[in-house]
Amino acid sequence: MIKLHPPLPTSFYEKQTLDLAQALLGCVLWKETEEGLAGGIIVETEAYKGPEDRAAHSYNNRRTKRTEVMFGPSGNAYMYTMHTHNLFNVVSGPIDKPEAILVRGIEPYYNQELMRKRRPNVKTPYQMTNGPGKLTKALGITLQDYGHTLKEPPLWISHKPKEFMSFSIKSGPRIGIDNSGAAKDYPWRFWIDNNKYISR
DNA sequence: GTCCTGATAGACT
DNA sequence: GTCTATCAGGACC
């Protein structure tokens, strides 16, 4: 699988964050664990643009143990715990520009059986991965992956498979950030139109 | 729609 | 040490 779907190179991540958020749509997110390898198509993302974005953890350049990885180079994993769930983000922006992209939804692409095993009790296939906390559980992504590069196993992102080369992208306000002033209205959420694995 | 769960970092005393 | 908010999810109505 790694030979068929090699990691995207450093140059892929050297884009404006809003462009990268859209470029990630259709790409495959892979995670290999002791249980096996699983992969899913990224179908929904949200951009968070550091200093000027009140909704971002790195707003006003807040530099802490948690946000530290966002001040580093792009192409690394930023993990964050929300209640009982782990959320996965791709670090974006150059060094000292703390920006990131939250992955909110994936479509199972490889080893759906393993995802189902990790997500018992779901009633429809969509419920396995149609949310930021759900997809990390389905793929087996944990806080251990914080700060890890996305350019080599066990956690990596590969180019769009040919069946996902063409689709239309929609955008709109982000989810769950109601207390962030004007920032809550920024249309920095992107998704693949008509995809069934969008979080809402 | 409402309510409850409950990990972790960060702010505060 | 203690308090509290959080880029949700699930169970319920």
UniProtKB/TrEMBL annotation:
Keyword Transmembrane belongs to the record: no
Enzyme superclass (EC): hydrolase
Highest taxon above the source species: Bacteria
GO biological process: base-excision repair
Keyword DNA repair: yes
Protein name: Putative 3-methyladenine DNA glycosylase
Keywords tagged on the record: DNA damage, DNA repair, Glycosidase, Hydrolase
Family that this chain belongs to: Belongs to the DNA glycosylase MPG family.
Family annotation (InterPro entries): Formyl_transferase-like_C_sf (IPR011034), MPG (IPR003180), MPG_sf (IPR036995)
Entry-linked PANTHER family: DNA-3-METHYLADENINE GLYCOSYLASE
Enzyme Commission numbers on file: 3.2.2.-
Taxonomic path: Bacteria, Bacillati, Bacillota, Bacilli, Bacillales
Pfam families named among the record's database cross-references: Pur_DNA_glyco
Gene Ontology terms for molecular function: alkylbase DNA N-glycosylase activity; DNA binding
